[in-house]
Amino acid sequence: MERAKSRKPHAMMIPYPLQGHVIPFVHLAIKLASHGFTITFVNTDSIHHHISTARQGEAGDIFSEARSSGNLDIRYTTVSDGFPLEFDRSLNHDQFFEGILHVFPAHVDDLITKISLRGDDPPVTCLIADTFYVWSSMICDKHNLVNVSFWTEPALVLNLYYHLHLLISNGHFKSLDNREDVIDYVPGVKAIDPKDLMSYLQVSDKDVDTNTVVYRIIFKAFTDVKKADFVLCNTVQELEPGSLSALQANQPVYAIGPVFSTESVVPTSLWAESDCTEWLQGRPTGSVLYVSFGSYAHVGKKEIVEIAHGLLLSGLCFIWVLRPDIVGSDVPDFLPNGFMERAQGRGLVVQWCCQMAVISNPAIGGFLTHCGWNSILESVWCGLPLLCYPLLTDQFTNRKLVVDDWRIGINLCEKKIVTRDEVSVNVKRLMNEETSSEPRSNVEKVKRRIKDAVTSVGSSEVNFKSFVGEVGDRIEIRN
Ligand SMILES: O=c1ccn([C@@H]2O[C@H](COP(=O)(O)OP(=O)(O)O[C@H]3O[C@H](CO)[C@@H](O)[C@H](O)[C@H]3O)[C@@H](O)[C@H]2O)c(=O)[nH]1
């Protein structure tokens, strides 16, 4: 017993192989390691390859600098996701996720077996896997590991998926004609309109086949998470008290966000970053709009063209992140003819950048976003009001938090297809201090809350420390 007590906890961490998941996992790894954990961080070969290509050379051990500067025990390894490196995961989305569902867990299982045969010191005693993985409880049972699920979206979204059975039994999901009235029976959620549900739940059985891979993942992952010993959420207790309390009534759930280190030395970008510092230099405070639709969603060419014209019409300065695969990796040309020439001097288009560095520049005054959860947290951290253009998955639900609940942002459009006039009008509304005074003053309040949460006495920090204590106790009991 004494020996077990003095043993450091050793957690294997496996993010979902997508940019918006790898980033918070890396920050969590650093935080745990600085609280005495040994970490073995696992990226897929493909994610590692993209990080290396973005850096124009083998990235090697991505934690080497963090390890030496912070004296942290973080080990790094990669594992195959079952596909060759050249396989286009973005273009072949469903095939890729079939592999993540069925093939990837076998590779993870092999890796854990290999590591345990190698006799690492201390031995791996805990798995911290993304909540979207459907196999965590199976792997933890097999290898006698404490099962920690890390949720990288808002607690509201987890809470809705968690109570999927209620949405189904009440006819708001998985019926031929889903109900369209307000949902008021999910514990911890006062009321939510069906249009604010995650995109996957906004469709009826008439419109989609819910046997596709995305649905099989959803149905299984949110059953499996109920078997986790602990759930960590990248959110703040004071921001989502209802959903968090509802979840906490069932199992240990800790709000520990926002999990990010503002000066991260760990390379995580999957595309080469452009440095925007020089371009931003000397520009008036709050004069530049930042536009990004994250790493995962695609945007139709028609919409990109409308947004491009709208940005030009607005007459404002902007930095627009446009991934090469934003429309599709088989559609390389999507901007309207002459756009770059007309934007010269006031618009900068980059394929990727260090978002946190850019949006914390005082010249940035607002964020046109797809409402990815990391982007929302980062924008609030920097005190920037948001212009919301959700594209898929949790982004519609996140928009509700931003626009309806916290009132820190405005909607770009109501309909799916945005027009250039809507872009121009709303961009101007967001960037004008008078017309955006309400979201601007509210974002300052929310910013205070999230910054307070991560001080030594703040809720996220206190929750994090109790998680560290609890997980240590659980490891002892298991071993
Ligand atoms: O040029 C860029 C653009 C983005 N980022 C970073 O990339 C991350 C993007 O994350 P997020 O804003 O959450 O968007 P996605 O990449 O689209 O994230 C996926 O994962 C999120 C968290 O699970 C979900 O909320 C989203 O809907 C899902 O698409 C953020 O940390 C950004 O700082 C950069 O560093 N440079």
Automatic annotation (TrEMBL):
Its EC number is 2.4.1.-. The lineage of its organism: Eukaryota, Viridiplantae, Streptophyta, Embryophyta, Tracheophyta. This is Glycosyltransferase. InterPro entries: UDP_glucos_trans, UDP_glycos_trans_CS. One of its GO terms (molecular function) is UDP-glucosyltransferase activity. Pfam families: UDPGT (PF00201). The keyword Transmembrane does not apply. The keyword Glycosyltransferase applies. Belongs to the UDP-glycosyltransferase family. Keywords: Glycosyltransferase, Transferase. The gene is LOC108805964. It comes from Raphanus sativus.
